[in-house]
Write a structure and sequence with these properties.
By secondary structure, the chain is of the alpha+beta class. Helix 3 (107-116) runs antiparallel to helix 5. It has helices spanning 24-27, 45-58, 107-116, 132-137, 197-214, 233-239, 270-288; strands at residues 5-6, 9-10, 17-23, 36-42, 62-65, 71-72, 81-84, 92-95, 98-102, 119-120, 141-142, 145-146, 151-158, 161-165, 172-173, 176-177, 184-191, 193-194, 246-247, 250-252, 260-262, 297-298. It contains seven helices and 22 strands. The protein folds into three domains: 5-84, Uridine Diphospho-n-acetylenolpyruvylglucosamine Reductase, domain 2, CATH 3.30.43.10; 92-214, Uridine Diphospho-n-acetylenolpyruvylglucosamine Reductase, domain 3, CATH 3.30.465.10; 233-298, UDP-N-acetylenolpyruvoylglucosamine reductase, C-terminal domain (Uridine Diphospho-n-acetylenolpyruvylglucosamine Reductase, domain 1), CATH 3.90.78. Bound molecules: flavin-adenine dinucleotide. Flavin-adenine dinucleotide (FAD) binds at residues 29, 63-71, 85, 103, 128-131, 133-135, 137-138, 140-142, 175, 183-185, 215, 220-222, 297.
């Protein structure tokens, strides 16, 4: 085996994959985290499989990154490999209302493509800025709709081997899917409803317009906390005076108390982000006795 390594992976194992040194702040939508890592973008599923087999055999750390819109970076360098599947998992195939979608396809691209073919029913979700793999992992949702009920099958890799799963209704929870830990999703099979192309395009457009009106300006990672049962985290945080709280260049939006934005062009620090999140959590705990849980995934 060659001793010539990029990150923890010997060059021979990387196959025909692009490797880049990256910083969390540059690849996540909030823009937090000075820590660096090696990002590997396999060109084909076979390259991905080889890389994952090696990772599994050597028991290396890895993370899959989608659009980074729910992921908060770290200030420490990552001792492992970050997999970016945009080159090998970007296709959409269709057979009637059954869509087989690469895990790196943006949700909006799927919604628009399906609408052109006369299928849809996911227009309320189309303003969520994630790729399908991230959207499924988070069971992303909006306006009472979630991705889970449209998903029929999931395909990917687990412990270095091919893996498939047909989730049932009980496998989906609010902003959670009962995926086995460490799974790498490559393809998602969805069943979409028959719709009128013109009407679906209209619904997509109106949802995108609504989002641009209500979404706070600036870099963010969406809602910070999950809603506790029967309550809205944003309302609780607002009553605790969280709007406008800040730590260095991270600030709770004045528009939305469950939303942190980064100000200016400088990267944010994960340590500041945690401090701000903990202060928000502390206030709600003190005033209402409720412990909020973050929706975000921390590196
Ligand atoms: C402006 C804005 C608005 C938002 N609005 C909403 C909203 O209305 N509703 C909502 O639910 N969310 C919302 N979000 C949060 C976020 O967009 C969603 O959670 C989205 O589903 C995350 O997708 P992603 O591709 O960015 O995933 P990432 O943030 O890159 O990753 C999220 C998690 O999924 C894992 N993951 C990603 N891809 C794969 C894969 N292929 N295989 C295995 N694991 C994978 C990652 O390792 C990580 O644990 C918003 C975010 C922003 C910035």
């Amino acid at each position: 085996m060659t001793l010539d390594r990029i990150g923890q992976l010997p060059i021979e194992v990387q196959g025909d994959a692009e490797v880049r040194r990256c910083r969390w702040a540059d690849v996540t939508t909030l823009g937090v985290g000075a820590g660096q890592f090696y990002r590997i973008s396999p060109n084909t599923l076979l390259d991905l499989k080889n890389i994952l087999q090696f990772i599994y055999n050597k028991q290396l750390n890895y993370i899959v990154i989608g659009a980074g819109s729910n992921l908060i970076g770290s200030d420490e360098d990552f001792d492992g490999v970050v997999l970016d599947l945009r080159k090998c998992c970007g296709e959409i195939r269709q057979d009637g209302g059954i869509f087989t979608v690469g895990s790196a396809v943006p949700l909006l691209r799927l919604a628009k493509y399906a609408a052109e073919q006369g299928y849809g029913g996911i227009s309320k979700l189309c303003g969520i800025p994630g790729l399908l793999g991230g959207v499924v992992t988070m069971n992303a949702g909006a306006l009472g709709q979630e991705i889970g009920p449209s998903v029929q099958e999931l395909h990917g890799f687990l412990e270095g081997r091919e893996w498939s799963w047909q989730p049932t209704a009980s496998d989906w929870e609010y902003r959670r899917c009962h995926l086995p830990s460490g799974v790498v999703l490559t393809e998602i099979v969805l069943k979409l409803q028959e719709v009128s192309t013109a009407e679906e395009n209209e619904l997509i457009l109106s949802e995108l317009n609504r989002r641009s009106r209500v979404t706070p300006r600036g870099r963010s990672a969406g809602s910070v906390f999950r809603n506790p049962p029967g309550q809205f985290a944003g309302a609780l945080l607002e009553q605790c005076g969280c709007k406008g709280l800040s730590v260095n260049n991270l600030r709770v939006s004045e528009q939305h108390a469950n939303w942190i934005v980064k100000e200016g062009d400088e990267p944010g620090r994960a340590v500041d982000c945690r401090q701000l999140v903990e202060e928000m959590r502390r206030r709600v705990q003190k005033q209402f006795g409720i412990t909020l849980e973050t929706e975000w995934r921390w590196v």
